[in-house]
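Following up on my earlier message about iron/sulfur cluster. Here are the inputs again, as you asked, copied directly from the submission form:
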Amino acid sequence: MDRQLIDKVMENLRGRQFEAYYAEDAGEAMDLIFRLVPEGSRIACGGSETLREIGFYEKTADRFSLIQPAEGSGPDEVKRAMRERFSADAFFLSANAISYDGRIFQEDGASTRVAPMIYGPDSVIIVVGVNKLAENEQKARQRVKMAACENCRRRGFATPCAEDGHCHDCRVPRRSCCTSVTLNFSRIPGRIKVILVGQELGI
Ligand code: SF4
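Thanks, got it. Here's what our run produced:
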């Protein structure tokens, strides 16, 4: 993608009091993460294919303390861990789309990914491949829906989009896009940091 355009998007993100960084690849993105988040921090992550693809979980296992329910936890323990996310030192996730004018678009099912993004952790770090940049709000919303359909298909959810790849604004229990959130501005300067990575990442 055109570097001038990436610079413009970063300028627009900064104008909304988000910090913006550019990394050529996954390795540079991880170097930035290590600069931004002190060793020993308590962190949490919203489910993210992008973080998996950049090797985030393996590369941070010895460096940060990850808040997550233990394997095989029951519903009470899962709920406790999800609520603990709000007090993490840093919360990591990706975005479903970012418009060229610097707005960040997300959709979520249980909202355990978007809720700590909006409020709680002192630092929120959003890692995004340049494939998720969208020309305007309409294109961003189209991209978000495409990602929701693809996510349902990959995970085998019982939703109509998993069958035909199109959104039906469904009302089924496994709906994966129950909450739509747009970040327009950060009242706390720099709380939300965006690392744009110059490669295709995530859905
Ligand atoms: S509303 Fe339903 S059909 Fe549309 S993307 Fe979400 S889960 Fe799929």
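One observation from looking it over: The CA atoms of residues 79 and 202 lie 26 Å apart. Hope that helps, and feel free to reply on this thread.
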